[in-house]
């Protein structure tokens, strides 16, 4: 049996290894269009590779996918994050689960993952061809005919597509031509640019728990928030950008972001907590006593924004001033003008519609013996680790080749 894996990334290598383990006598080859293998694995997680997430339950794990959640929930019953951890550790890659749930190699080096894949491919005799860009697929009675740039067409019994996300719709034309429905790709997992906002002067400040919403839209992201020299980043913003990928695209990335620095949606509770501070520290200046343990620079910035002096004592605050503070803690607003996407690590919302795939097997409904894995599908998660998990799971299922 001849099997081609199109794409030498995370999903491509994982599916190639799994196919060879499922069918030891199969002739398996990875076809990668560039000269580099596993380039996204190499740079992911700041070069450490966030392999997966340490979620305890399948319900919690599947909730991290704005697109594909329902379908993945079924697949996670077969192969989930706990299985991934066991897979790597049984092959000599020790993993560590951080407090935030991210799972990294103990080595803190993505090369550990790359070396593992290359070693497994060598052990299993998986063929690897670089500079082998696939330009066309054709149905055949004998399987799938693959056109490789500047080379002769080759016939395979089964083909797994693991090409990753395409930033442009035209990059998926070759799959649309075969009868697959395509959801237009738009960026996901990006940060907010705020060129007109002076808060960027606080670059490097981190708030451990914040809530970010978009004015006029039912979008929310929570978690740590990082202030950068261009605007805002961190899990709260990335999560929001993921769930709101299409809405924010329609807004042309021009909108108002509201930040709840208190991480408390009930404004009356914020008011009560501030009143408590006036009772506990009536003679202390506002500049020295910070509500919600906010970073000093941020708290001083917010006081300046409300035009309340830092040398005012808590006991001197009027009800009007307290309400001002409540409002800025709960509804601080900033103008977003554009986004920043880390091009090497781009994640797309969109791709081959899951309606074009038999989820149980990951086989194409349009072409027999053609399978999909990873970000080429309309599946994406709220951080890189979840996107890798989706790639591992869909690759594991696709590698059964319908069996």
Layout of helices and strands, plus pairs?
Blueprint: E1 2-6, H1 10-22, E2 27-31, H2 39-47, E3 52-53, H3 58-62, H4 69-75, H5 81-89, E4 95-97, E5 102-105, H6 111-124, E6 127-129, E7 134-140, E8 143-148, E9 154-156, E10 158-161, H7 173-176, E11 182-188, E12 191-193, E13 206-214, E14 220-227, E15 231-233, H8 235-243, H9 245-250, E16 254-260, H10 267-280, H11 296-306, H12 319-331, E17 332-337, E18 339-340, E19 347-352, E20 357-358, E21 363-364, E22 370-372, H13 384-398
Parallel strand pairs: 1-2, 1-10, 2-6, 10-22
Antiparallel strand pairs: 3-5, 4-5, 7-8, 8-9, 11-19, 12-15, 12-18, 13-14, 13-16, 14-15, 16-17, 20-21
Helix pairs in contact: 1-6, 1-13, 10-12, 11-12
Sum this structure up briefly.
This protein is an alpha+beta fold.
Description of the structure:
With 403 residues, the protein is of the alpha+beta class. The protein folds into 2 domains: 2-187 and 344-398, FAD/NAD(P)-binding domain, CATH 3.50.50; 190-340, no CATH class. It is 32% helix and 25% strand. It has 13 helices and 22 strands. It has helices spanning 10-22, 39-47, 58-62, 69-75, 81-89, 111-124, 173-176, 235-243, 245-250, 267-280, 296-306, 319-331, 384-398; strands at 2-6, 27-31, 52-53, 95-97, 102-105, 127-129, 134-140, 143-148, 154-156, 158-161, 182-188, 191-193, 206-214, 220-227, 231-233, 254-260, 332-337, 339-340, 347-352, 357-358, 363-364, 370-372. The strands form 6 sheets. The chain has a 7-stranded antiparallel beta sheet. A hairpin with a 5-residue loop joins strand 8 (143-148) and strand 9. It starts with a strand and ends in a 5-residue tail after the last helix. The relative contact order is 0.18.
